[in-house]
Amino acid sequence: MSFRSALILSTVLAAWSAAASAETIKIGVTPGPHAQILEAVKPIAAKQGLDIQLIEFSDYVVPNAALDAGEIQANSFQNQPYLDNQKADRGYKIEAVGLTVNFPIGVYSKKHKAFADIPEGGKVSIPNDPTNGGRVLLLLRDKGVIKLKDGVGFKPTVLDITENPKKLKFIEVDAAQAPRALDDVDAAAINTNYATQAGLDPVKDPILREDPKGPYVNLIAVRAADKDKPWVKTLVDSYHTPEVKEFVLTKFKGAVLPSW
Fold first, then answer.
1. Nearest Cα to 120, choosing from 158, 183, 164?
2. Where is the signal peptide (predicted)?
3. What confidence tens digit (pLDDT) does each residue in 57-93 have?
């Protein structure tokens, strides 16, 4: 066998061996930025022997159920208050292993150019899950629209509103359906991933926008039993690379902010 043939054969065998030894994991994501960012992570992780398969979920409830049941090995779609709420309500043994990105939530309107233009008794839709719904109420409180009871933490509800000078009517809708509510309300609070799917610009279009700080940084979660496994470190390290940060900054132009 010639040297060239032997070199080609050894290269093919090395590639086959690396592919055969690669560990495959399934990661649950919501469509939009979370899925797009993980697509950028995949080739980086592949070089470290980790094969990532993405499973898209259209809501915020199923990804944790699927993770807890072992149908997927990780998910990337939620923030810590949401995870804490899910664990408290459902008993999931799931842990955060790394921070990802922040999506400042926005309030959008097709009828008004400013939140101050919403008339008395106007309708405002907010997500119906405790974390994101509470997040919007905190945003409205910080902007002086309403007042809330003291000590409400990160999960206030409409029942915690103590002052509502404009007598706004809060309509609770599933977060994924929020863009569809825009035609029927004066304003709708929409999470960034669903806003981008609906063709909205999360930087330019909101009439109110959350400050890019606080506890709402998103995270990668795994089952508690898996958190110390080598593939978890490979996954987080592959995500926390300069290449992925550059991708986020270039692709989303301020709508999504890296947290590392």
1. 164
2. 1-22
3. 998 999 999 999 999 999 999 999 999 999 999 999 9
Across 210-232, average pLDDT:
92
**Residue in 203, 201, 193, 251 with CA at minimum distance from that of residue 31:** 193
Q: Does residue 19 contact residue 12 with C-beta atoms inside 8 Å?
A: no
Indicate if the pLDDT at residue 202 is higher than 70: yes
| Residues facing 190 on adjacent strands | 106
Q: What is the pTM of this model?
A: 0.74
Supply the DSSP string of 116-182, one letter for each residue: GGSPTT-EEEEESSHHHHHHHHHHHHHTTS-EE-TT-TT---GGGEEE-TT-PEEEEE-GGGHHHHT
Strands 23-29 and 50-56, by their bridges, are parallel
Q: How far apart are CA 252 and CA 79, in angstroms?
A: 19
Residues paired with residue 221 on neighbouring β-strands, in sequence order: 75, 96
Tell me if domain 23-104+215-258 and domain 106-209 are identical in fold. yes
For the chain, domain boundaries: 23-104+215-258, 106-209
CATH of domain 23-104+215-258: 3.40.190.10
Confidence at residue 16, expressed as pLDDT on a 0 to 100 scale: 46
State the DSSP code for 196: H
